[in-house]
Amino acid sequence: MTGKDMRKEKRESKESFLPPPGELVTAEEAVKVTIALKKSSIEFFKKEAEKYHTKYQKMIRELLDKYASQYQAT
Prior knowledge:
single chain; mainly alpha; 3 helices
């Protein structure tokens, strides 16, 4: 397997559990935190949130929750 193929396979395995933006809209109790994120990431989430008539912070929170649930000990 070439280096390019290995990078593609690794990228696909990482992406396989990430939900599409439309699945990042839920309602649940939250805890406020302060975090610095890349401007491009925030712009992406703001644009997607507008499409789904929700808040971008909720979408980011849901993404982090889904990511964490993939690695939490059962």
